[in-house]
Specification:
494 residues; mainly alpha; 88% helix
């Protein structure tokens, strides 16, 4: 594949799933606004603690199958071995049910303890017992999406994701509106059911031959998935656990409202930035796994992915820096303006996150699960320490500062380890794009942070235009954006 076509493949998959992420963002805006209006910061804090607790149990019980199985399915598809593919998918589906039931049973049994840990009382025991069933639904849904991802059915993934988000919105809003806090549990359960149904419909569209499962097939096919997935699962547990501990620390030292503010602030960063990361990873991981045996090809794929990520993300981050105060008021309410400085600092950290994210996939693509595990463990130790220290000394703003410092360190860590093991390095063009866009964002940060009113908006808007024009020109060199639009015009004109 030529360089031009490689960039076009990245941009095409990003565009398809990116449009879906835009829909998801709009839905998330409406949902977050409704939670903010109907439930307030305290209600948002409750939702956050419930969902983060479920996330912790999921990380403990899913055995990393949603990541490890993608490589197996993608490899079987690339080899053109229908029998191998059928066996891999059959074993994977069996393991998904087992792990989903495990999560459900553990949550059900530990409900009183989970309530005590999250809320310092057993008041939410019944709540945890009721929502425990969602761990089974979520795991099965994830399994269906893994099949689509491994088969690189990007359009099916996109449709399933957007329809799931729309269904969740129409289910949750009336519940929050009419039942307030009492609508939280039904909203969580019914949303997971709708996502399950929609993912099942699209997974059935992929024609994969049936295969019988016996002990021998489970040993040969299942052990490889579980072996790699186990360490990924532990890594995910550590990541989720660290995030959970931060929320508990904030809850104990600042109250549940600060948890809500923290959740809202990072939802802004997470929702809009993950739009790019999610859109790219839909095709990036399977594509990188296909060339994992070749270090030179891996280097090329990672650098191209990094360049596209930076060029798309940079204008969005500068936009955050300039207009985030309006955004917070619009998305939530004036009660949430306490997270303004936190989001400013975190926005700069995303530049380093984009690079570390792109590089980090090399360990998964090469099935280096032990290296991946130790990298994640070390990173989460200092990320947790920085978050706790940041909040303790500087409050919510400190969490934004810690985000920036943590991802700067994480970027350096990924770069050094991948260079030592696989001779990876960032090329000159990637570094050029990174330095230019980071410089523009930093100047914007300083202007907005220290200047107020009209002057800050004037300078920031000018820098936003510069960042956007630079990204447009660079993308045009890579993929000829004008030609892409001409082809689209001709396609729909017929």
């Amino acid at each position: 594949m030529s360089k031009d076509n490689s960039y076009r493949q990245i941009f095409k998959s990003t565009s398809i799933f990116g449009l879906v992420q835009v829909v998801n963002i709009l839905i998330s805006i409406v949902r977050s606004k409704c939670i903010a209006v109907f439930l307030g910061p305290a209600g948002m804090g409750i939702v956050s603690l419930l969902t983060s607790t479920l996330g912790l149990i999921t990380s403990l019980t899913n055995f990393g199958l949603s990541t490890s199985a993608v490589k197996n399915i993608a490899a079987a598809k690339a080899a053109g071995d229908e029998q191998k593919l059928a066996k891999t998918v059959a074993v994977f589906r069996y393991l998904v049910w087992i792990t989903g039931l495990l999560g459900f049973i553990i949550t059900l049994i530990l409900a009183p303890w989970l309530s005590e840990i999250a809320f310092e009382s057993k008041k939410y025991t019944i709540t945890f017992m009721l929502i425990s069933i969602t761990l089974l639904f979520v795991q099965i849904s994830a399994g269906q999406n893994v099949i689509l991802r491994g088969m690189r059915m990007v359009q099916y993934m996109a449709r399933a994701s957007s329809l799931g988000a729309i269904a969740g919105l129409f289910i949750s809003i009336p519940l929050y509106m009419f039942f307030l806090d009492k609508g939280i549990v039904p909203a969580i359960i019914l949303t997971s059911i709708s996502a399950l149904i929609i993912s099942w419909v699209y997974a059935r569209k992929v024609k994969i031959p049936d295969a019988a499962i016996d002990k021998e097939i489970l040993k040969t096919e299942g052990v490889e998935m579980l072996k790699m997935g186990f360490l990924i699962s532990i890594s995910g547990l550590i990541t989720t656990g660290a995030s959970y501990l931060v929320r508990i620390f904030i809850s104990k030292n600042g109250g549940v409202e600060d948890v809500g503010l923290y959740t809202a602030g990072f939802a802004i960063i997470g929702t809009y930035v993950s739009m790019i990361f999610t859109a790219m990873s839909a095709d990036y991981y399977p594509r990188l796994a296909a060339v994992a045996h070749d270090d030179v090809s891996c280097k090329k794929e990672i650098n191209q992915q990094s360049e596209i990520a930076l060029l798309i993300l940079a204008p969005i981050l500068v936009l955050f820096l300039v207009f985030i105060q309006w955004g917070i008021t619009l998305l939530y309410s004036a009660q949430f303006l306490g997270v303004l400085d936190m989001v400013h600092w975190a926005s700069i950290g995303v530049f380093f996150q984009a690079l570390s994210w792109s590089i980090g996939f090399i360990f998964l693509a090469k099935s280096a699960s032990k290296i991946y595990f130790w990298n994640e463990l070390i990173a989460n130790i200092y990320i947790l320490g920085l978050n706790v220290a940041g909040y303790y000394f500087f409050g919510l703003t400190g969490l934004g500062i810690s985000y920036l410092v943590a991802y700067f360190l994480h970027f350096l860590q990924m770069l050094v380890v991948s260079n030592k093991l696989y001779n990876f390095s960032l090329n000159k063009n990637t570094l050029r794009i990174f330095v230019i866009q980071l410089s523009i964002a930093t100047i914007c940060f300083v202007s907005v942070y220290f200047l107020k009113g009209f002057l800050a908006y004037l300078i920031g808007s000018g820098l936003l235009v510069i960042s956007s024009v630079f990204s447009w020109k660079e993308l045009d060199k890579m993929i000829s954006i004008k030609d892409v639009f001409i082809k689209l015009k001709n396609k729909y004109a017929k």
